[in-house]
Automatic annotation (TrEMBL):
Entry protein name: AarF domain-containing protein kinase 1
Ranges for domain ABC1 atypical kinase-like: 160-406
Family: Belongs to the protein kinase superfamily. ADCK protein kinase family.
GO biological process: lipid homeostasis; mitochondrion organization
Species for this entry: Falco tinnunculus
GO cellular component, one term: mitochondrial inner membrane
A Pfam family of this chain: ABC1
Length: 565
């Protein structure tokens, strides 16, 4: 069973778990509030222990949270804390007890396991919707991990993108009054009550300024700033308790990432700076549009932008109605992200469909990609970016020695085959054969999804070992694959050629910057130009092969060959 070789599973001491046939005692990471015990057939003693520890957690976290001078109990609320603790306890108890009397590996076991996944995912979804804010943000993150979590979780949690909370008109007025010092009617000729969209941290309204300019007004939910740090603190306490029940799993990396990223996402001035930086960085792409920022009316909680509209990037029907080439959009999106990741090392890490719009320009007839929500970017270090470039070059060339080398340099260790499969969303067989040799088949796609659960312990181990920069890139990869899947445009040969171009340019630029010899710099530039020329020639060959002209040439050569004999 691929995606990883059998020998990889034999290197660790095996044990059974509810997600698949093989686990690792070294596994040490998992996502927040999703509990997968290493021995589902444990006794009722473990269940009682779970409830006892949950009760202790309630008392301990209550004392800690309300005794902490940085925590305002009026904002946090005992109900909010209690709800999270109760959900955690119920999910834990369900996994510990539901499967213990069923023969492992039987059809009944697999059926019940799926039911436990579904029940737990629904409980987690309900908790996120009720507690809002940071909880929805975490749930959305989990829902995007199609190839890393069981389908019951990702399918259930995806609805959080469309079920984000909405602030009332009075709450919006309050935030604008506090931050801009004026009432809405003093700032705008009109301000639509119904938001264009609502997310976990903010919502966006369409408005018209006094001078007639149409703008999008992004307003932060009033309580999310105060609650975010407390939510993270609550997660941290609960995860420490869960670790006592399931020592094999370690969750704290998620808390660490949230601590680092949430303050940046909640600072709209930072988002505005990111928008301007990426617009300048990718100014050569005439198909990319980034809304202009109106700084005079922007604060940490209010962001005024140029109003832009279009269809969501995963809406194939919208593109067909408006005469937009779906394949062109998919290629251009790939170009954008290859440029951000490999060349610039400054990556927009939240490309879910609501943040990427498409629109056909009436004047030019060209299709534009509109990139929104610039709060979350990952800055890649130079050494990480170079290793990542060389790893992708090795994957495209099916150079397994270099795949192993650069995967291990990025922290994958002996799990490098699994790492390669996670990056490419291809089976190990396809990686060995060459990921550009054939498209993803329906059977391979199903195989990858079904096997994700079987290798979850190894996946969690990888997530704990790779650099923190890799975590957001993996999330970004999954979001982009979700868009490709919706458009039915999974990675083609041309997309890998664009990636190759970016990798060659990035590595050559890095080598020139490190060289002091003029002759060596010229040599690097010549090699770069030759490699890019070879890619262009191969791309021309592919175009001719697929075009009508190419068909005529091939038919002519075939007739000439037969007439000779």
């Amino acid at each position: 069973m691929v995606p990883i070789p059998t020998r990889l599973c034999q290197e660790s001491k095996s044990y059974t778990n509810p997600l698949g046939t093989v686990g690792s005692k070294r596994s040490s990471v998992q996502y927040s509030f999703i509990f997968f015990p290493s021995d589902i057939q444990g006794s009722s003693v473990m269940a009682r222990r779970a409830l006892k520890l949950a009760s202790l957690a309630a008392a301990a976290s209550g004392i800690y949270l309300y005794g902490n001078k940085f925590v305002d109990p009026n904002d946090f609320g005992v109900v909010r804390v209690g709800r999270a603790i109760a959900t955690t306890a119920v999910i834990t108890y369900d996994y510990l007890t539901s499967l213990r009397s069923v023969p492992y590996g039987s059809e009944e076991y697999d059926f019940l396991k799926s039911q436990v996944h579904l029940r737990s995912a629904e409980r987690l979804r309900d908790l996120c919707c009720t507690n809002r804010g940071t909880f929805i943000k975490v749930g959305q993150h989990l829902g995007a991990l199609d190839y890393l979590l069981p389908e019951e979780y990702t399918r259930t949690l995806k609805v959080l993108h469309s079920q984000a909370p909405q602030s009332t008109r009075q709450e919006i007025e309050q935030v604008i009054r506090e931050d801009l010092g004026k009432e809405i009617k003093e700032l705008f000729l009109s301000f639509e009550d119904t938001p264009l969209g609502a997310a976990s941290l903010a919502q966006v309204h369409k408005a018209v300024l006094q001078d007639g300019r149409t703008v999008a007004v992004k307003v932060q939910h009033p309580k999310v700033q105060a609650q975010s740090s407390k939510d993270i603190l609550l997660m941290e306490v609960l995860l420490l308790v869960v670790k006592q029940i399931f020592p094999d799993f370690e969750f704290m990396w998620l808390v660490e990432e949230a601590k680092k990223n949430l303050p940046l996402e909640l600072d709209f001035l930072n988002e505005g700076r990111n928008a301007e930086k990426v617009a300048h960085m990718l100014k050569n792409f005439d198909f990319l549009k980034v809304p202009r920022i109106y700084w005079e009316l922007s604060t940490r909680r209010v962001l005024l932008m140029e109003f832009m509209e279009g269809g969501q990037v995963n809406d194939r029907a919208y593109m067909e109605r408006n005469g937009i080439d779906v394949n062109e959009i998919s290629r251009n999106l790939g170009k954008l992200y290859s440029e951000m990741i490999f060349v610039n090392g400054f990556v927009h890490c939240d490309p879910h469909p609501g943040n990427v719009l498409v629109k056909k320009c009436p004047a030019s007839g060209k299709a534009h990609i509109i990139l929104l929500d610039h709060g979350l970017y990952q800055v890649l270090s130079e050494s990480f970016r170079m290793d990542y470039c060389r790893l992708w070059q090795a994957l495209i060339k099916a150079d397994m020695k270099r795949v192993q080398k650069y995967s291990q340099r990025l922290g994958a260790g002996n799990l490098y085959p699994l790492f390669a499969c996670m990056l490419t969303a291809r089976s190990w067989e396809s990686v060995n054969r060459g990921i550009d040799r054939s498209p993803v088949s329906a059977s391979e796609d199903v195989e990858i999804r079904s096997n994700a659960a079987a290798y979850l312990p190894q996946i969690t181990q990888l997530l704990n070992n790779v650099p923190r920069q890799m975590l957001l890139l993996l999330k970004t990869n999954d979001l982009l694959r979700g868009i490709e899947s919706a458009l039915h445009t999974r990675a083609s040969a041309s997309s890998f050629l664009n990636m190759s171009r970016c990798c060659i340019r990035a590595v050559s630029t890095y080598q020139r910057s490190k060289s002091r010899s003029f002759y060596r710099k010229v040599q690097i530039s010549f090699t770069e130009a030759l490699s890019l020329w070879q890619i262009n020639l191969y791309e021309l060959f592919l175009w001719l092969k697929g075009s009508q002209l190419g068909s005529w040439v091939i038919a002519l050569l075939s007739r000439t060959h037969h007439s000779t004999y």
